[in-house]
Amino acid sequence: MPKHVFRRRFVVALPLVLVVAVSAACSRSAAADPAPAAAAESLTDDGGTSFAAPDATPSAGPTTTPPAQPTTAPPTTKTPGAPPPARPGWVPVDQAKQAADVKAFFARTPRKITNNPVKVPEFNASCTVSHRNSDDPIVAPGLVGASHNHTFMGNTSTNAFSTAKSLYANKKTTCAPAQDHSAYWIPTLLKDGKPVLPSGVTVYYGSRLKDPSKTVPFPFGFRMITGDAKRQTDTPDKQGNHFWCAGIGGETGRTPDGEWPVCAKTANLVRQVTFPDCWDGKHLDSPDHKSHVGPADRDGKCSGKFPVAIPSVSFVIGYPLNTNTTGIKLASGTGYSMHADFFNAWEPAALAQRVRDCVDQGYKCGSDGKF
């Protein structure tokens, strides 16, 4: 298949069509996601470090009868080191476990670089479409059919009731490698009202930072959204949410409304969506599913509110459309409403190995995590 050079700072080989479904513009925030008890098995990498998916089952409370409350409220005091109270929509990460996982991660000895790989910090998951439905477990958890229609890739069980625990427990995925149990989704593309499924999708995990060597894996159960389902017009700078043509001949024109590209017969309609590079290090999710992540600073570093470097996730989605792009739109509206959702359920050891070997060392790996 033809090779293409994609935008941003990723240099990638497009399998020619890629993939998947996106998140709904619903008003509900996600509640805290129970971490998987089923994931308590030890996942050991080839360096001997044990990474187990977290078990956040709360311990039983005290069984003794609490003392009677005083009639006069005591003065408010802060206990040194006490965590701040949880805020609605903010899902806190287990700080003690996260610190231990990060320490173990950087204690890993990266794999020796072989085969003269391309010097691009990335690896990927190669995916096809799993299914469609009108659910969104991040924006509208537990509400069946509450969203516009989504196209899902990866985990075959993804629906309104999906949690990190349920995703991890399901071993069926349409992505390679099989250790990636994550769910990925985008709004369904429609032509004359009928769904057009991506021919395939590549989910890249890379880095656009000046120094990628401090990048850490996503904590288990992490989720985020990029793009805006409510946006129906182009960005003021005209540099935002655009579809384009990949392949010989590229773009040959525009649809009558000017919104969509018309591709040569030897090219295909493509869209790339990219998530932020940096994380606050404190939350698995936020009320808008975006505020816990952010961009790098002017120096290409993660700092300030977002000091933790995470892999920059990017979906490259290809559709089997070229010269016939009139009458297409997204289930969320115009092409400018394109957005994407990521719900992490990787086997922790497999994800850690790829981030340490490929992203941190700055070299390109395949879906198998090898150079």
Note the topology.
Layout: E1 42-44, E2 50-52, E3 91-92, H1 95-107, E4 122-127, E5 129-133, E6 150-154, H2 164-169, E7 175-176, E8 183-187, E9 189-191, E10 194-196, E11 200-206, E12 223-227, E13 244-247, E14 251-254, E15 261-263, E16 267-274, E17 278-279, E18 283-285, E19 293-294, E20 308-309, E21 312-319, E22 328-330, E23 339-343, H3 348-359
Antiparallel strand pairs: 1-2, 3-18, 4-7, 4-11, 5-6, 6-8, 8-23, 9-10, 9-22, 11-21, 12-23, 13-16, 14-15, 16-21, 17-19, 17-20
Give the fraction of residues assigned to helices: under 10%
Strand order of the largest sheet: 7-4-11-21-16-13
**What spatial form do the alpha-carbon principal axes imply?**
globular
N-to-C CA distance:
20 Å
Biggest sheet character: 6 strands, antiparallel
Briefly note the structural class of the backbone: mainly beta
Integer average pLDDT: 83
| Uncertain stretches of 5 or more adjacent residues | 1-80
What is the N-to-C succession of helices and strands?
EEEHEEEHEEEEEEEEEEEEEEEEEH
Counted by DSSP, the helix tally is 3
Radius of gyration: 22 Å
Estimated share of beta-strand residues: 25-35%
Notable traits:
371 residues, DUF1996, mainly beta, single chain, signal, 5-stranded antiparallel β-sheet, disordered N terminus, DUF1996 domain-containing protein, 6-stranded antiparallel β-sheet, 3 helices
